[in-house]
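Problem: given the chain below (470 residues), write out its structure.
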Amino acid sequence: MAFRFEPILAEGIAQVSYFICDESAGGAAIIDPRPDADIYLQKARQYGVTFTHVFETHIHADFMSGARQLKARCKGSAKIFVSIEGDATYDFAYEPVREGDEFEFGQVKMMAKHTPGHTPEHLSYLLYESHKEDPWGIVTGDSLFVDSLGRPDLLGDEKTDELTQALFNTMREVFCKLRDEVIVYPCHAAGSACGPDIGNRLHTTIGYEKKHNPFMQMETIEEFKKAVQDSAPPVPTHYPKMKKLNAKGPKTFGHLPPVRSLSVEDFEKEMKNPDTIIIDTRDMLAFGGGHIEGAFNIGQRPILSVWAGWLIDTEAPILLVLPEDKDLEQVVTLLWRTGHTNFKGYLAGNMRSWQESGKRIKKLPQLSVHELSQNNGQYQPLDVRRDKEWQNGYIPDARHIFLGELSDKISTLNKKQKFAVYCASGYRASIAASLLQKNGFQNVNSIPGSFKAWKAADLSIENKSQYQKK
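Solution.
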């Protein structure tokens, strides 16, 4: 029999939850679960334990909490434990946790530590061997990351200064005072927008972060505040709504959110609702070859969760076009993680059934980097990568609009212009190009391979040190 402490990574949203159990004691806990709870239940069955505790380090903004879902799946054996520090309130049944509260799971003891800054109620959990005084680890939620820290600006401008000061205090008075050998287990890895430039590793140590994390080395609030503000990535559009949803308590299902199989005729009927969003999850080349007019192309990769969160309202009715019908479970899981559960159905038989029914098909032209280079001046290159990617080099004469902000800035583009849309490798380019098509742009091309292909072809590159940003 052994004690288990295992990180569980959800790719795409780059979120890490933690499974804790002691086989000899028979009980298990989870910290910061995502909604697709099967992976946790499989762990419990593997070790022959039952969930008794479900912990949340804070009210999450970037993904849908799975606490209520897991509790429902456990049929009442588990209770949800949430922070009531910072006057946090919730609209569901919970057990309150305060600074200093302790929980034991066989050989391990967890102690709650209030670490505000990312949010007012934020808790971290110190990990101890039950018979020792010094902690061996700390679960830091969204307060301390590998090479980074949680952002303090998610509650609006009026709260940002207050939370920045709280985060500075947390860094100096909590984390910097822990022993160097304490292992740090954060809630996010590289790819999350919950902090700037989060490192690739799933865990680190306090000593390593003291030496390499610039935010732990700053001794004045002025320096800290400037660094936090200068490094903050754009706030994804779904974060404010997700935070409210998680405080209210997401709807629970006994399984994946239900999705009906629709014939071509029924699919067309659902399309008549002007609020309905069609998400086509096929590869960009398949989408370019032929798709249903008005569809978004967000390909079936883990990052689908993030871009659906950015671009599609969590309450919007959704129709799905899949690569294959067997892909339904994976696609629904990825959408569920960022709060999308209002599914009206999926097209049975995918695009093959649509084509064979003689329905109209829209194409999205694909332009190679060589064609773009040879026809210089005929197309306006549109770069939809993040600011830091753009600053490291871009296609000559390109205009830059980050994909997450394209919907808000689309009115600044000339619909009569010919656009060649690119990103790093083509995935985001196809999303952006489909968004432009959906909004009435007729002369849109996406660039397969995008900037990677441009560089591989040894074509000329500009950067900000040479030219003014367009």
